[in-house]
Design a protein that fits this description.
Layout: H1 3-21, E1 23-26, E2 35-41, H2 47-52, E3 60-67, E4 72-77, E5 80-85, H3 86-89, E6 92-96
Antiparallel strand pairs: 1-6, 2-3, 2-6, 3-4, 4-5
């Protein structure tokens, strides 16, 4: 099996487990330090840009910090930090697992 196929299976499995275990919300609604799994990105003008930044189904995200009253968010996506406007982050649907 190719590396691409294995990566897709891994991300798809991650989404399925996140949906089973936790609640869904938007990326902009996460609190500082909270982690979640991306389950989808709304179609729109920023869709391609968000996907190119790694915000695709199955990606693990963490809200690192917020600036200017949550109008700018620093988000860690699969180990890389990116800055997103709050309204753009609101187009990303995530699932947050339950805490043990």
């Amino acid at each position: 099996m190719s590396e691409i196929a294995l990566g897709w299976i891994k991300r798809t499995t991650r989404v399925a487990f996140a949906l089973e275990e936790g609640k869904t919300l938007h990326l902009a609604d996460l609190g500082r330090g909270e982690k979640a799994t991306v389950i989808g990105v709304a179609q729109g003008e920023a869709f391609c840009h968000l996907c190119s930044l790694g915000l695709t189904s199955g990606a693990e995200v963490e809200l690192v910090r917020t600036l200017s009253g949550r109008s700018l968010l620093i988000v860690r996506v699969d180990g890389f930090d990116i800055a997103l406007r709050g309204e753009t982050a609101a187009t990303v649907k995530v699932a947050q697992g339950r805490r043990s």
